[in-house]
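S.,

Sequence below, as promised.
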Amino acid sequence: MTEPTASPQTIAQILQQGLFHHRQGQLRAAMERYMEVLRINPEHAEALYCCAVVACAEGQFKEGVEVVRRAIKFGPPTAKMYNVLGQALDRLGEPLEAIKAIDQAIALDPRLAAAHGNRANILVDAGMPLEALKSFDKAIALDPTSVPDLINRGALYESIGRPAEALKDYDKALMGSPGDPRILMNRGAVLKDLGLLELGVGAADTAHFAEAIASYDRAIKAAPRLHEAFAARGQIKMMLGDWTAGFADYDHRGQLPEPTYKALPGARWHGEERKGERIVLITEQGLGDAIQFSQLAPWLAAQGHDVTLMVRPGVKALLSTLQDVTIVTSEDELKASDKPIRWAPLMSVPGIMALTPDEMPCQAPYLKAEPARVAQWRDKLGPKKGLRIGINWAPGHADRTVRSRRDIPLTAFKAIADLPGVELYALQKGAPLDEIKGVSFREKIRTLDADNDPNAPLFLDTAAIIDNLDLVIGCDTAIVHLAGALGKPVFTAVPVISDWRWMVSRDDTPWYPTMRVFRQGADADWAALMAKVADAAAKLRG
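The prediction came back faster than expected:
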C-alpha cells in the first residue's frame, strides 16, 4: 500500500476544496483538487469515487466504472460507490450488472434513496414496470421531495395507464421545482389523458382539457423556445376542433430537436396565390399521415395552384393517382422544371388555408386502385359468398415485445368472425400475422400474399384488395386511411386515449365521408367495443 506524502489533515482540506467546486458545478476545478489528492495518495478511495462521479457527469461512463472499481478496491466500499457503479454500467448497456451493483448499494445502506430510484429507472428500461414501481415507492418514501424520482414515477404511472396518480406526482414535483417547464409539459399530457378518460365514461364535457392547455401555457411562459410544448398544446387544440390555434402551435414541430420533415431551401409558402410558381408540399411522419393529408393536394390544384407533392419512394405509385398533382421523391426531381418553388409541410396545409373541421374538402375517393390489379385480385378472391371484410389489428411492428395503445387484440375480432355469412381477409402485415395461429376463429381468416416485397411500391395490391371488399375494420394505422382515401366503408376502432386526428365525442371524421369511428370506453375493453363494431357490420349485411 502506498504511503501518503502529506498529512491526513492536508488531504482532507484539499478534498473539501474539490467538493466545494463540485457543488458549484465547477467540475474542472473540482477534478484538479481530486487529482491533487490522488497524487499524494493514489489509493484514496473517496477521491477516486469523486473522480468517477465527475467522469460520469461528463459522459465518460467507461472511465467512471474503472475508477469507481478502484475506489471499491481500496475501500472501504460504500453504498454510494456501488450506486455510481450501477448508474455507469446501466449507461454502458449492462443492465444486469447494473442491478447487481445497485443491489449491493442497497445492502450496504437500505436507506439510500438514490439507489432505489436508480434501480427503478433501470427496471423501467428493462420492461419491468411493476417491479420498478416498487423501487420508486421505496425511494420516495425515503426522500418524499426527490423531484427526479417523482417525475420518473409519474412518467411510469402514465405509461401503465394510471394518469391520476401521475398527476399527483407531477404536482408534488412542481412543489420542489416550481415552474419547471418539463414537469408542466408532463402534467399537460396527463391532464389531456384524464379528459379523454372522462369522456370515455360518458362525461358530456371535461375541464381537464382547459387545465392541460393552461399547463402548457405555463411551460411556454417559462421556456418560450420549448417547441415541444407548443406542438403538444397544438394537438390538444386540434383534437378539440380549434384548428386555427391548433395548427399554428403544431407548426413548431419543424423546430423540434428532431423535426418531422426536412425543410427545402428557398421561400416557404403561406397560402398566397403564386402565378408562375410551384407549391411543393413535403409529406412527413407516418404512411397514414401521408395518405390522410395528401387529399389536400388535389384540392389546392383545383383552386388553380401548381402543386407538387414530395413523398417517400415507396408510396409514389399509390399517390400518383392524385388528380392534377405532380409527385416527386427527391430534390433532384424538382430541378427538372425551371419554375420557381415555394414549399410547405403537407401537414401544415389546414392551418395555412384556415380550414376548420366543418370546412374540410373531404373529397374521397381521391386515390384509386389500379384497374388491372383490381381485376387480378377479383379473380384470386374467387366467387363472393358473403360480406367481405378486411381486418387490421396492429401496426406492422417488427418487434412485438412493444405494443402500442392503439393495438387491438386479435381475439377481440371474434365478434366479427361470428357474424353469419362473413368472409374475413387479413390486411395485416409483419409479425402480428403470427397471432392468427392462436385464435379460435383462425380458419375464418384468409391471409393474402400481397405487397410483401420490401423493394416494390407500397399498398398497390392492398388497395386493389380493398376495392374488392365491402368493409374494412381496423385500428389506427395506414390501412384505415387507405380505405378512407379509396372511398370504401371503413370502421376505425380507437383507444379511449386516442390521437388528435380522431377529435372527441364523434363517430365520424372530417377526413373521410365513408369512415365511422368507434371509441373504446375508459375500461379499455376492446372486446366490448368490437361487439359494437360487429353489430354495425351486421346492419351493412342487411
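The chain has a mean pLDDT of 94.

Coffee later?
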